[in-house]
Design a protein that fits this description.
By secondary structure, the chain is of the alpha+beta class. The chain has helices at 20-26, 77-93, 95-104, 111-148, 169-183, 232-235, 257-264, 270-282, 296-309, 323-335, 344-355, 361-373, 377-394, 397-400, 404-415, 423-428, 430-442, 444-447, and strands at residues 34-38, 46-52, 55-63, 67-68, 158-161, 164-167, 195-198, 220-223, 229-230.
């Protein structure tokens, strides 16, 4: 006969409202025995009594669809007890070793560090080969332009504006990009690991200390971006050198910029590069560029294609005739970033540039330049790429009607997103956001000059 008030989620292990002393007597048979009892002091609450090493241990027991006494959740009470016994055994007979295993481990000797050192070298070599190929293409193009140019165009890439001679924007951009590629080393962008508690199937070992991950479930943590496996304690010792792998980072939208940059070994995300290139190749004269919405179904289709096919995504005019659709894809990508292009950490500093009435133009410029310098490398590169593009769009404002202030109005809330979840705070700073983005677009050349 079942004890009174037995919960439906307990079985034969439930012994009703008995005292701690009675439970201890019932469990004297052998280690590993356990029972569940209802508390005499607090009816409706339950205690797991379990025998280990000749001693009865008591734990407050909870149920919310899963059984638990701590952080770990179990589908069955039997699994909870088995995992508890394993943990008690390890803490009893290997406590001294567990206490020092993380501290005495040499990260540079770990399997993860050695493997990633090889991957970094490989990716760096790939980048160097790509840069050499791009540089040779630029050189060939320049030679062809010099050979085919008219006598009046001997100074290739030079245009005259009044009394001044300035290099053509495309020539400047090509030179700056070539120099920037040489300075960048995407593999060494600093990035913390994205650890989450994980249940490992079969034997697994910690990639930091090399020791076995014990327990039945939630034996340790795994980085969601690179697959680093570790004890929870060991994960606290690991530096911010995550090298994301496309095996784990399987989408483009909704992923932070640093993760995308390192996973695909490029300074800024391919979605940004491909959309900007496609829009500019189609021409920047279309009225309402970035203001007129594209077809939502097509935007979602391109988003899905980017997540699935990456750089093989077809966004050509043959596939999607409306340029506004491509613009919509870029805006959606920026909007879904978990950390905006101009990071939450630097938001207040950027807003200060617009709020402070005491700034002279020179002081405001230097303040913005200092703010930009604080951006993480992937955010810095993406901000630079976007602002250069938006400036080029504004140069066609007589045709597309997208002046710098119109572009700032469209992109301000996306580029400068408030860390405050209160919509009233964002609304209060809306005009300052627009002012900041206007300054960034107008002065993008000087702001990003080293």
């Amino acid at each position: 006969m079942d004890p009174p008030n037995k919960p439906a989620y307990y079985g034969r292990e439930f012994h009703g409202m008995i005292s701690r002393e009675v439970a201890d007597t019932l469990l004297t048979e052998c280690d590993g025995c356990y029972l569940v009892r209802e508390s005499q002091r607090a009816p409706g609450s339950y205690t797991l009594s379990m025998r280990f090493n000749g001693v009865t241990k008591n734990y407050r027991l909870f149920y919310d669809g899963h059984h638990y006494v701590g952080d770990k959740r179990f589908e069955t009470l039997q699994d909870l007890v088995a995992d508890g016994l394993i943990t008690l055994y390890m803490e009893t007979y290997a406590a001294d070793y567990i206490a020092v295993m993380a501290n005495e481990s040499d990260y540079e000797e770990s399997p993860y560090f050695k493997l990633n050192s090889q991957l970094r070298r490989s990716k760096t070599q790939e980048s160097l080969k790509s840069d050499k190929s791009k540089d040779s293409q630029i050189a060939v193009a320049e030679e062809e332009e010099q050979v085919t140019g008219d006598a009046d165009d001997v100074d290739v890439g030079i245009s005259r504006h009044g009394d001044y001679e300035t290099p053509h924007p495309d020539a400047i951009r090509g030179l700056e990009e070539a120099l920037e590629r040489k300075r960048l080393d995407v593999c060494h962008y600093e990035k913390s690991h994205l650890f989450k508690v994980n249940t490992f199937r079969g034997p697994h070992w910690c990639d930091f200390c090399g020791n076995f991950l014990w327990g039945l479930i939630a034996q340790g943590v795994r980085c969601q971006d690179c697959g680093f496996n570790a004890h929870k304690k060991c994960s606290e010792k690991i530096p911010n050198d995550c090298l994301p792998n496309t095996k784990y980072v399987q989408r483009m939208f909704g992923v932070d910029l640093t993760t995308l940059a390192k996973a695909h070994n490029r300074p800024q995300p391919m979605v940004v590069d491909m959309c900007i290139r496609e829009v500019e190749e189609r021409g920047l004269d279309a009225e309402g560029l970035y203001r007129v919405p594209g077809f939502s179904d097509d935007i979602e289709a391109i988003k899905s294609s980017f997540d699935k096919d990456g750089e093989n995504t077809n966004i050509s005019r043959e596939a999607y005739e409306d340029t506004n659709t491509i613009c919509g894809v870029l805006k959606l990508f920026l909007r879904l970033l978990p950390i905006p292009v101009i990071t939450f950490d630097t938001y207040d500093s950027f807003i200060e540039a617009a709020k402070c009435d005491n700034f002279s133009d020179g002081e405001r410029f230097r303040h913005l330049k200092d703010c930009i310098a604080k951006l993480p490398p992937a955010h810095y590169q993406t901000t630079k790429c976007l602002l250069q593009h938006l400036y080029r769009v504004s140069q066609h404002s007589q045709q597309n009607l997208m002046t710098i202030d119109n572009l700032a109005m469209v992109f301000g809330p996306t580029l400068l997103r408030s860390p405050d979840s209160d919509p009233l705070a964002s609304l209060h700073n809306a005009k300052f956001t627009q002012i900041v983005v206007e300054h960034l677009i107008k002065n993008q050349t000087e702001l990003f000059r080293k």
